[in-house]
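Why do we care about 3D structure at all? Because function follows from shape, and shape follows, mostly, from sequence. That is the central idea of this module. The next example makes it concrete: a single protein chain, its amino acid sequence, and then its structure expressed as tokens.
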Amino acid sequence: MSAYNCWLSMAQWRTDIRRNEEFVFGDQFSDRVYDAKKHRIVTERALLVEQGLQPSQYNIIRNVLRTIVGVWSSNKTLPSCIAQKDENQAESEVLTATLHALYRKNELWKLDMAELLQLLISGVSVTKNHFASRDGEKDVVNDFIDPFSFFVDNTMKDPRYTDCSLVGYFYDVSADDIVGLFSKGSKSRGEKLRRLYGGRSEERIYEMSETFTDQRLELDFFVPGTEAYGLCRVIEIWRKESKECFWIHDYLHGTYYPDFEIKESDIKKENVRRIQEQGAMGVDEEDMLLIDYEWGTANFWKYYFLTPCGEVLDEGMNPYWHEMPPIVFELHDFFCGKIYPFVKDLIDTNKQINRLSAISELLSKYSAKSLLFMPTNYIDDENGYGIEYIQDKATDYDSVIPYKPDPRTPHTKPEYVNTVAQAFTPLNVVNMYLRLSENVSGVYGALQGQQPTSGTPAQMYAQQSQNSATSLNGIFEAINSFRVRRDKMNVQLMQQYYDERRYIFDKNSGKRLLYDPPKVKNIDVEIAVVENTDTPAYRLMVNDLLFQLKQFDTNNVLDLRGMIEAGNLPFKDKLLDYMNKREQEVKDAAMAGQPMAGAQLPPELQQELQQYQFSPEVQQQLSSLPPDVQEMIMQQAEGVGG
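And the structure:
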């Protein structure tokens, strides 16, 4: 019931999500309005259709979201593990490589882009990080959580969520999956689980819901929807609880922890045993390593897996070392316990643009079009300026319509009439609201890559782009904070559950690193988001710097292998593999006392080397290098090896 109350308190937020989603992906005329003529509530589209109009919608919100996601994803930052102690830096590099491997395996970049889009539309990003079996393999997994099934403590106020005491979500799975997850190897327990969901006890569920609302608007918390027909609902809850305990300070093992099960008599017995044991070893009484304890209470996270009727499928204390619930979430903007999604600010502006477009179309359809009222005394049929002449010439761009002026004003000058400017008046108003949408969202045309208008200074255009990026820092910080907390939990899960040695491929160095559980299991690390170096610009910068350093390498300290390993050549891995193989062949030939003839590079490596072209800046720097270095580099580029 506490989980249901938290979920029910977020009903207005879920309604806002549906409206936001409609304005991003669906019908932007779906808002319900009051029809004053017929005294009813209808959608805006239905009202306009009754007026004989099929309104078009101009979705500026979608483009703004594409721009934000594109700007963030254009620089693929990567998490890096930083050890708290200097002597653990080597192990932290292994954890970094393992985390990057998890990124590739779980497609976390694709998930993060979807989470950012969801954060903009709904204000929430949420995943579950745990160790589970998927496709016959056990590993750390990151599961997406539907925001409509997510619930969280409705009394939170801290933007860091430190005051959260309840979090969870519900999901629908088959009865066979429930038996496999919660039977714990017992056939009789599995049969009981099937009976719990037999018929799903819908009448009982309805009675429970009816106590909250007679209209039964929130039945979907207890009953799976139509799209999940035949599935069984599981409600997963993580709740912070408090319990009496003894706080144990064990001087022998150097630990301090709460023990919820131990009895005071057991502690005293253990101290008596230690006194006897250490006394026999000649340890003075004041130097004995005993257990110091005191009674108190402690908080801990406990998990529950429940049926919609409240039966407990499973429960227990938090099994994870990090002692936190495995559900990681981010709320943006989160102010005084309320969620304010980014998209909500843009809806009114987009509605106004659509409304002006609809009004312009209505005016065009029902207004008088080139209707001319002509006094009959101005029709001069005798001189050939009759009504047919006026009809033919009235809309020509260069026509002349003669008329007889008032006799009292014989010196009347020719009069020019031009009404084409009225056709552009609605467009000017639309342009005004487009500029207003930029001011509201902070995403200016410069950030979207739009061509600047004539006369716009380059410095001003660059400043607009920078200002747009600055206004989005809050969103980027929110998604990065979400990634940092999630990735730190992933590292802690790896430290807890990776109990076998394994080799991890480090994409940055091109080497295979050994993950040794005893060495990395207890390393305390922090997660830092760093710039991704896997970009053409970065590779070019590193290669250029290497060539510059080689000019001062008179003692040939930086040899060919060193340049290849330190550089960022696109064919680096294949070239190193070839060099290792070649060196082994030379050693084998020398041991056999046979001469080793020169060899050509593999054809595929030759092709990659030939396709790699240096920039003009690199070519200019190449010409300034010593002749032997130039010859060495050119040999690589031509595909000649020895």
